[in-house]
Amino acid sequence: MHPHRRLTCFLVLLLTAAAGVARAQGGFALHDGDRVVFYGDSITDQRLYTTFVEDFVVTRFPQMKAGFIHSGWGGDRITGGGGGPVDLRLQRDVIAYKPTVMTVMLGMNDGSYRAFDPHIFDTYASGYQHIVEAVKAALPHIRLTLIQPSPFDDVTRAPNFEGGYNAVLVRYGQFVKELAEKQGASVADLNTPVVSALEKAKALDADQAQKIVPDRVHPGASGHLVMAAALLKAWNAPPTVTAVAIDAASPRVARQENTHVTELRDSSSLSWAEKDEALPMPLDLNDPVLKLALQASDVVEALDQELLQVTGLAAPRYTLKIDDQEVGSFTREDLASGINLALLPTPMLKQAQAVHGMTVSHNNLHFARWRQVQVPLQEHSLSHLRNALKALDDLEGDLVKQQHEAAQPKSHHYELVPQS
Questions:
Q1: Beta strands 101-105 and 84-85, pairing class
Q2: Dist. CA 29–CA 186, nearest whole Å
Q3: Which of 9, 166, 177, 247 fits as disulfide partner to 337, beta carbons 3.0 to 4.6 Å?
Q4: Hey, is 362 helix, strand or coil?
């Protein structure tokens, strides 16, 4: 490993530990039994940043039972849209679920894709305040997170007018922040981190950077990952999946965080058993645009640290096997500095990806139930509609149960085999 990379890994270890302490003191915002509704326009309707957030909670806190409902509707403004006026949307798509937590992200359509207009902004400000007050009146104990809207991409392509549309969204986002402070809500900035990632990605690979927000409005999976990370950080999400440090010279376990290490043995190879209490984020490490977004952001450092550090090794290079599966080859110096297993093709990543598949399945089922059955048929007098909706809800409940079962900890066998 290059000396600069070794220093970087060491600094990441230190910064991760410090961040972990700070966030642990604040505590993660969600709790067992919470029900979260994500409310917004087409960007929420994509069910991507919301799915990443749900994946994180289910895999990082496998014992927590929290529910997630995705209530974004394409084209929505502060006054509502294709799903009906805002008061209908709030009653049917938020309040009816009796959430304990609600996020709101609106603004992309509200600015009308033009230079700042005070009259348009006044409609946004009064309408946003109405949403907050209406929800709080119906659900007095709800915990609100107001989201400063994600950006219009004026970075990888030239602005459409002087100053650019994202500057308008930033002004709207400042209002959202001020409203959150007045209403005792938390706030998450989903604009600044994405703009920063776009700027860094453009410097690294200008063509691929345009794919982070392909149409300048709706991010792809990579942009949504950066957005999810921003929301999770606003919720004090912990950076550590697991952290293990082993002194091979003794041998002994010097550190074990969020995991249980047993059966440490040193013979021809160093081996141990490990039962983790969390899984890494289910990232597609073969997606080039997502890899670029990871390079251009702090997502991995801030949220996906699955650290393994082994000191006191004798041989120059080792093969790491988990459950007899080779996951990488590392120098003695790499291992002494620490490696991040979250970025390797481990059985834990495969398990997390299986959880993600169930997350997508239950949300797709809910979407079909909501948008293809409940809403289109709500004005009809159909004797079996209520039973049909309940049956779909029960089926989704079965999927969510499987999702949580799939996230439960498993024991794995680790082995560091010296290379000849």
A1: unpaired
A2: 10
A3: 9
A4: helix
Each residue's pLDDT tens digit, 381-420? 999 999 999 999 999 999 999 999 999 999 999 999 999 8
Q: What DSSP state is assigned to residue 214?
A: T
- DSSP tag of 149: P
Preceding omega of 251 cis (within 30 degrees of 0): yes
Q: HEC profile for 109-168?
A: CCCCCCCCCHHHHHHHHHHHHHHHHHHHHHCCCCEEEEEECCCCCCCCCCCCCCCCHHHH
Instruction: Match 């309707």 to its residue by tokens.
Output: 45
Length of the chain, in residues? 420
Locate 205 and state its tokens.
């690979």
C-beta separation of 328 from 344 below 8 A: yes
Q: What percent of the chain has pLDDT over 70?
A: 94
Q: Please provide the CATH number assigned to the domain covering 3-234.
A: 3.40.50.1110
Give the type of residue at 304: D
Over residues 282-333, the pLDDT tens digits come to 999 899 999 999 999 999 999 999 999 999 999 999 999 999 999 999 999 9
Say which residue the tokens 């790491």 belong to.
320
| 119 vs 344: CA distance, rounded Å | 51
Q: How many C-beta neighbours within 10 Å does residue 227 have? A: 28
Residue 255: pLDDT over 50? yes
Q: pLDDT tens across 97-144, in order?
A: 999 999 999 999 999 999 999 999 999 999 999 999 999 999 999 999
What is the rounded end-to-end Cα distance, in angstroms, of the chain? Answer: 18
Hey, which residues does 262 pair with through a beta bridge?
Answer: 273
